Amino acid sequence: MKKIKTGKPYVIAGPCSAESEEQVLSIAHSLKETNVDVFRAGIWKPRTRPGNFEGIGEKGLSWLKRVKDETGLETAVEVANPKHVELALKNDVDVLWIGSRTTVSPFTVQEIANACNGIENRILIKNPINPDLSLWMGAIERFSGQNIKKLGAIHRGFSSYEKIKYRNAPIWEIPLGLRREFPDLPIIFDPSHVAGDRNLVFDLSRTALSLNFDGLIIETHNNPDKAWSDAKQQVLPEVLLAMLDHLLYREGEL
Ligand code: PEP
Ligand code: MN
């Protein structure tokens, strides 16, 4: 499996959820011509409990197409079933990610992997919500078994019944164990879902880079407090860009 990129960490940024065409385009335009490589926005959102916003759905794909055309950024969405894969591919989405609530389910992962057979798009597999390295490895193997060349993992932390500082415990040994098992697999760190709090995102990102993670995926919103999902952990685009400036170019001085 090939490394994603050399030279600098791969950076994915954008809102937890696509909410409106204006919101998506406004955030994307503030991230163009920066260190951001890929624009993320969830349009299908598997939520732990019903009654929360479950995503804008298919119409968000045309918004992402506009992002690509107007900013040149690649785009990324979560796919949770084969239909999502079909629609995302039809609408030119570059990067597909598998969410942590999907990675726990082997039959679903296999169905999605089958729908991705041989595609050139990058596919990123989030760790399962529970701290289980084998389940994460199993999901990765189901995709590599379908001739996916551009495969990577995302470490988004692990849920814990105990009250802890973070929304999801980082348990760094698990992603480091994944790296030992699959030394060539790029692993991206998701400080937003580990932190659950925007004030913790910078320090977590710095720790991840010091552990040689290959990239970052950071939730970024133009009005974070009013976000329809994950409001507490999203950062403003200008905050993201200042963080990246420190993390990517001046880490030694901090
Ligand atoms: C997300 O990326 O917005 C998300 C829901 O992630 P996770 O699957 O890690 O909870
Ligand atoms: Mn989110």
UniProtKB/TrEMBL annotation:
Keyword field contains Repeat: no
Domain DAHP synthetase I/KDSA: 8-240
Keywords noted in UniProt: Transferase
Source species, domain of life: Bacteria
Keyword Transferase applies: yes
UniProt name for this protein: 3-deoxy-7-phosphoheptulonate synthase
Naturally occurring in which organism (per UniProt): Pseudofulvibacter geojedonensis
Upper taxonomic lineage: Bacteria, Pseudomonadati, Bacteroidota, Flavobacteriia, Flavobacteriales
